[in-house]
Structure formats: structure tokens, C-alpha cells
Amino acid sequence: MKKLENKVAVVTGSGRGIGRDIALLMAKEGAKVVVNDLGGGSDGNGNDTKVADEVVREIRELGGEAVANYDSVSEYESATKIVETALTEFGRIDIVVNNAGILRDRMLFKMSEEEWDAVIAVHLKGSFNMTRAAAPYFKEQKSGRFINFTSTSGLIGNVGQANYAAAKLGIAGLNRITALDMARYNVTANAVAPFAWSRLIGSIPTETDDQKARVDKLKQLSPAHIAPLVAFLSSDEAADVSGQIFGVRGKEIMVFSQPRPVRSVYNAEGWSIDSLSSIKGSLQSSFTPLEVSADVFPYEPLV
């Protein structure tokens, strides 16, 4: 029996890249899939319904069941329509993959309010909108899977991505609370930080030799590497996995730590600026370095 037989999945942003590969694999594993994509560019502008239609065609040619949806996750009512598409076409909903995303990279001191709002709206608010729309059905049927997409831009850091990093770290928090709130209903929520070449990271600078070398490495990482983990987390096999953050880097899968205290100091008399200055070094040895993602993952990806 296929791992997702009789399941209904909504995969947002599944007209291209990572989302497309997830939709195709889920259909191959027996799921009925709502292929959601409004067909915009990497910055969110534009609209091309053919993008979602093409993935639906591919799934049907492989013998699977799929339907297209072109609504934007950034609008609460539109997210409700996406979930309603699953209910209308297939009679239920079992899996929500919050993959849709855009980029508006800019150094913080140059970023406009519109660039900030647009990225937060699609990634963070969009993930909430979809989660909120599906959660009552998951609660009622006492089953369901949320797969959220975070990023090392938020978990670790990257230059020029204040909007994207804030959204992606916010999604990690949303994922954790979703897992806690829905646990009693046998609903899981897990987050995935993908390493894969896609149009969303096609804007990475290639002005220096180091930057070019980094992009060449990223181009080796296929979106297809991400899909098996997402399909597994969506299956009954992962019923006891929730509230976790995973990374997929080529053929390597990792589990990320989540914030916990690493060191503490105590002063019975309370703290002052002077006393804090005197013990700064005691805490400093446990400070997290000011790093970007490439500093933490300097080694060659396993492809």
C-alpha cells in the first residue's frame, strides 16, 4: 500500500521548485493533491495559472488525482478557499504543506515597508492563514499533518534578509505552538529548512569568486531531495514526530536544536551595570557567534 493512500494534501506554492516535487511525490504515494500556486515571480508579482495547471497535468498523466488552485495564501479568506478546494473536490483534508514564498532581499537600512510587509504576508501570515483554515477540520477528525517551511536565514542568519529571516524564524515559533495546541487531537506539525537550488535563491550575489563557488554548490542541491522527508512527515509512519525542525542538504538530513538556556549566572543582591560588567566574560564564552548560514555549513553537500 502506498504511504499516503486515501490522504488529501494541499501543497502551497507547488507550481515550481520544491513544492512541485513535493506534490508529484505525494501523488505518487497515493495522495490526492491540491496544487496551489498563483504563478507569480520570485518577488510575488504577476500571475500565471498555467504553472499550477502543468503540475496537475503531470500528476494526472502519472495516474494520480490533482486539482489546481490559484488563490494567494497571504489573504485569510483566500487561504480558506484553498482548504475548501480540497473539501469540495476530494471530500476531506489531511495534509497542509506551507511552502509558498517570495523574496524581497535588501539591506536593512534600505528595506522599504512594502518589501517587509510583502514577505511577512506570504511566509508568516500565509502559514498562519493556511494553518488556521485547516486546523478545525484536523481537530474534528482527530488527525492531520502540518509541514511548515523555515530557513537557515532565520535559524542562523544571512545578510540582507531581515524580512525573510524574521518570517522564517516566526514560522519556527508558529510550528512549535501548532504542535502543542494540536497534540491532543493527534495532529502533528514539523518544520523543514531546505537547501536546494530554486528561483527563490537565484538572486544570491555572484560578484566574487567565493560567492560564485557557493552558488555552484547550491546548484547541485535538487528540490527532489526535499520531497521524501516531507512525504514521510505527512504519513502515518511519523505520527510520533511533532514540533521538530529538520534540515535537508542534498542526501543529508539533520535535526536542528531549538532555543534553550545554555548558561546562567545568579546574584543574591541583584544585578547592576558594574556587576554585570565584571561577569560579562563568564557569559561571553557561551555566546552564539555572529555567523551566516554559509559559516555553519562550509563543507561540501552530500549529493
Automatic annotation (TrEMBL):
GO terms for molecular function: oxidoreductase activity. Keywords: Oxidoreductase. It holds the Pfam family adh_short. Residues 7-203 form the Ketoreductase domain. One of its GO terms (biological process) is bile acid metabolic process. Belongs to the short-chain dehydrogenases/reductases (SDR) family. This is SDR family NAD(P)-dependent oxidoreductase.
